[in-house]
Amino acid sequence: MADDCDEQVSDSAKKPVEEQQSKFIVAKLSALAVAMFVFAFWVMPPLYTLLCEVTGLRKVGGAYTPVANVVDESRLITVQFIASQNEAMPWVFKPEVFEMKVHPGQVANVAYLAENPTANTMVAQAVPSITPYNAVNFFHKTECFCFERQPLAAGESAELGMQFIVDRDLPKKVKTITVAYTLFDITDRTGNKDQEQAAQEQTKKPSLALR
Question: Would the pTM count as exceeding 0.85?
Answer without folding.
Answer: no
